[in-house]
Specification:
- The chain is of the alpha+beta class.
- The protein is built from 27 helices and 17 strands.
- It has a 6-stranded antiparallel sheet with strand order 2-3-1-9-8-10. A 6-stranded antiparallel sheet has the order 4-5-6-7-11-12, covered by helices on one side.
- The protein is globular.
- It starts with a strand and ends in a 5-residue tail after the last helix.
- Residues about 635-640 have low confidence and may be disordered.
Length: about 650
C-alpha cells in the first residue's frame, strides 16, 4: 500500500528531481516507510518520464522497494495496492520460466505483464493503481482495479500528462490550471459526491474503475476491461443451500488471501453483520488473537460499541475502542478535506480517519466490511425498488405531488427515511431516483439554490446503462459503478491512508462477486433486512442478536452538533460575509436551511454537511476562477 505520483512531460517542459520529490512527498502519510524516485527519457528524447513512490511496507518488507525495475531493465513500475493472489500467479509464472529476485507482489505484477501483456490486469485479485513503463514498446501503462478500491487521478494539458494517487500533488504541479469545475458543483449537490470521471478541478479526472490507459507517443487511450458480474451473469443457482455453500467457500477464500501480510494487521469492527462476518472468518485462519478496532460516540443512540464488544468477546480478540468527541472531530475535519482532495461526502469519513490514526500505532493493515450491502443487497432501497413501478402505476404523479408529498414533507424531524422513500417512489427518472435514495438534492432545489440551470446528465452514463430488467440488479450495478468507487471506497482509501493504514475489503472480491451474481434476487433480498444468503451463512457462527439486527449504518451525531457545539461554525461557513458558498448560493435559502435545522423544525443535516464541506474545500484548495462565484451570487442574490 503506497502513494504514487508521476508525469510524462515534453522535453522542453522537463522538471528536476527536486520537483518530483517535493510533489511525491505531499503523500508522505500514504507511505511513511520509504520513498523512491526515477527520471527517464524516451528513446527519441522527446519526453521525460518521472516516477515517484511513497511506501507503506506490508509485503516483502525488505525487498519490495519502488520504483521497481525488471532485471533486464525493460519494465519500471510504481504500484499502489495489493495483488492478493500473487502467490498463485507467481507459481504459474515460474512454471512458464519467469525468474524472481524478490518475494513481492510488485515483481509478480511486472512479470505478469511480461507474460500476458494488458490481459494481466484481468488476472489480478486485488486493489491497485499502477504505472508501468515499457522501454521496448516506449509506452506507459496506467491501470485501476476492477471496483475502484484504489484511486488514480489524471491530468492532461498541452503535452503534459500527470498521474497520482491523490489530487493534491497534481494541482500543486507548476502551471497546472486549477480552474473550478462548475458542472461538478451541480453534480456534487445532486449526488453528495462528484461522480467520476469528474473532480472539482476541470483539468483533473479520475481513471474510472476497471479501466487501463495506454500512453504512447503523446497519445493516451483508455479501455474498460471489467464489467460487474451482475450485468453479465444469469442466475443459475436454484437451491438456497447451494447458494450458502458457494458463498461460504468464496467468502472464506476472499478473507484468507487478504490476510497475507508480513506486517501486523487487524480488523475494523462495527458490531454489524458485515464486519462481524469478516472477523469471524479471520479467526478461523489465525493462530493468534485478532486485533479489532471500533469507533463510537458519547451519544448512545449513535454508538455501536456495545455490539462490537459482543463480537470481540465471542471471538477473543484484542479489542481497542475510540470514542469521538465534537472537539476532536473538528480537529481532524479540515485534514480530511485535504486528503480527500474534495469535500468530505460522508460524516463517517472523519471518525474512520481518527480510528486509522489510532490503529496505525499497532498494525499496518486492517480488513473491513465495506461493500457487503452493495454486493449482497443490504439497503432498504434494494427491497423497495421492486415495488416502485407498481406504486407509480397505481398512483398518478400529480396525485402524489399534490397529496402524498405535502403530507410526507410535514412529518417531524426524525422521519428522514420515510421522506426519502416518498421522494424516491415519485421519481420516474432512474438517474434522479438513484440520487434520491442517498439523500441528494433534487434538480429543482439545486437550481433554486444556485440561481442557474444545472445539467442533470451524469458525467458518465455507464452506471445507469446496464439495461437489466431486474430492479435489484440494476440498482446494485449502479452501486458498484458509481456510489462505491466515488464515495464509500474513496473514503476507505483516503481516510485510512490519511492515518497511514491499509484497508482490505473481502466483500469487494471479483471472484466472490461472480459467485453472488449467480444467485436469484430472492436469495439476496428475500428475507428481513436483505443480505439473506449472508445472514444464513453467518447464522451458524455469529450471535443471533447480531445476525438479526436491524441495519443501523455508521452515523455521526452531526445533526445534533450543528444545533449545539458547531452552531457558530456553521454560521461562519454558510451565511457570514466570509463565506464563498454564500456568494455561490441564494443566501436567503441558506439562512432558511440553517434556521430550520437549528430550530429542530426540519432535518437538513445532509445538505448542511455538503455545503459546509464545499466551503472548507474552497478555502483549502483555493481553485481559480473565483470570479464565477461572484457571477453566481449576482444571479442568486435573493435577500442578501
Amino acid at each position: 500500500m503506497c502513494g504514487i505520483f508521476g508525469w510524462v512531460l515534453g522535453a522542453a517542459q522537463s522538471r528536476d528531481r527536486e520537483t518530483l520529490i517535493s510533489l511525491t512527498d505531499l503523500m508522505f502519510h500514504r507511505g511513511p516507510d520509504g520513498s523512491g524516485y526515477w527520471l527517464h527519457k524516451t528513446s527519441d528524447e522527446r519526453f521525460q518520464i518521472g516516477f515517484g513512490h511513497r511506501r507503506l511496507s506490508i509485503i516483502d518488507i525488505g525487498g519490495g522497494a519502488q520504483p521497481m525495475s525488471s532485471e533486464d531493465g525493460r519494465f519500471t513500475l510504481i504500484f499502489n495496492g495489493e495483488i492478493y493472489n500473487y502467490i498463485e500467479l507467481r507459481q504459474e509464472l515460474v512454471a512458464l520460466g519467469h525468474r524472481f529476485r524478490t518475494n513481492s507482489d510488485s515483481e509478480v505484477l511486472i512479470e505478469a505483464y511480461r507474460a500476458w501483456h494488458l490481459d494481466a490486469v484481468r488476472r489480478f485479485r486485488g486493489m491497485f493503481g499502477f504505472a508501468l513503463w515499457d522501454e521496448t514498446e516506449q509506452r506507459l501503462i496506467l491501470a485501476r482495479d476492477a471496483f475502484g478500491k484504489k484511486p488514480l487521478f489524471l491530468a492532461e494539458l498541452q503535452g503534459v500528462l500527470l498521474f497520482g494517487s491523490e489530487i493534491e500533488p497534481l494541482v500543486q504541479f507548476p502551471g497546472l490550471d486549477r480552474e473550478f469545475d462548475s458542472d461538478a458543483l451541480g453534480h456534487y449537490l445532486l449526488n453528495r459526491y462528484v461522480p467520476g470521471p469528474s473532480t472539482f478541478f476541470r483539468a483533473v479526472k479520475k481513471l474510472q474503475p476497471g479501466h487501463y490507459a495506454v500512453w504512447q507517443s503523446g497519445t493516451l487511450k483508455t479501455t474498460r476491461y471489467f464489467t460487474p458480474p451482475f450485468a453479465t451473469t444469469m442466475p443459475d443457482v436454484k437451491s438456497f443451500d447451494d447458494a450458502i455453500r458457494l458463498f461460504e467457500g468464496a467468502f472464506d477464500e476472499a478473507v484468507r488471501i487478504r490476510m497475507r501480510s508480513d506486517a501486523p494487521f487487524g480488523a475494523y469492527l462495527s458490531g454489524g453483520l458485515d464486519s462481524s462476518a469478516v472477523v469471524a472468518t479471520m479467526v478461523k485462519h489465525s493462530a493468534e488473537p485478532a486485533r479489532t478496532f471500533s469507533v463510537g460516540f458519547r451519544e448512545a443512540e449513535y454508538s455501536e460499541l456495545d455490539h462490537a464488544r459482543v463480537i470481540a468477546g465471542r471471538f477473543g480478540t484484542n479489542h481497542n475502542e475510540l470514542v469521538v468527541a465534537p472537539d476532536a472531530f473538528m480537529e481532524h475535519w479540515s485534514t480530511a478535506v485535504v486528503r480527500r482532495g474534495a469535500p468530505v461526502s460522508e460524516t463517517s469519513d472523519v471518525p474512520i480517519f481518527m480510528l486509522s490514526e489510532m490503529a496505525s500505532r499497532s498494525v499496518k493493515m486492517v480488513l473491513t466490511g465495506e461493500g457487503a450491502d452493495e454486493l449482497m443487497g443490504g439497503y432498504p432501497k434494494h427491497r423497495a425498488e421492486q415495488w416502485i413501478d407498481l406504486y407509480q402505476w397505481l398512483m398518478p404523479q400529480r396525485v402524489h405531488e399534490r397529496l402524498i408529498y405535502p403530507l410526507v414533507h410535514s412529518l417531524p424531524y426524525g422521519m428522514r427515511r420515510v421522506k426519502i422513500l416518498a421522494l424516491a417512489a415519485s421519481e420516474r427518472d432512474l438517474v434522479n431516483r438513484m440520487r434520491v435514495w442517498f439523500g441528494g438534492t433534487s434538480v429543482a432545489e439545486v437550481e433554486a439554490m444556485l440561481g442557474r440551470p444545472v445539467s442533470a446528465t451524469p458525467p458518465d452514463i455507464y452506471p445507469y446503462s446496464s439495461g437489466l430488467k431486474s430492479s435489484l440488479r440494476r440498482t446494485l450495478f449502479f452501486d458498484q459503478t458509481s456510489w462505491l468507487p466515488d464515495d464509500l471506497l474513496e473514503r476507505g482509501d483516503r481516510m485510512m491512508m490519511a492515518g497511514s493504514i491499509e484497508g482490505r475489503m473481502p466483500f469487494m472480491d471479483t471472484v466472490l462477486a461472480s459467485v453472488v451474481a449467480r444467485f436469484p434476487d430472492e436469495f439476496l433480498t428475500g428475507g428481513k433486512g436483505g443480505k439473506t444468503v449472508l445472514r444464513a451463512a453467518m447464522d451458524k457462527i455469529l450471535p443471533p442478536e447480531i445476525v438479526r439486527r436491524k441495519k443501523v449504518g455508521f452515523r455521526v451525531p452531526i445533526g445534533e452538533w450543528f444545533r449545539g457545539p458547531y452552531r457558530n461554525f456553521i454560521h461562519d461557513m454558510l451565511v457570514s460575509d466570509a463565506s464563498s458558498v454564500a456568494r455561490i448560493c441564494n443566501r436567503t435559502k441558506l439562512r432558511g436551511l440553517v434556521a430550520e435545522h437549528v430550530g429542530g423544525r426540519q432535518n437538513h443535516e445532509r445538505v448542511i454537511w455538503s455545503l459546509t464541506n464545499l466551503e472548507m474545500f474552497i478555502r483549502t484548495f483555493k481553485p481559480s476562477q473565483r470570479d464565477q462565484f461572484e457571477g453566481n451570487a449576482a444571479r442568486a442574490a435573493g435577500g442578501r
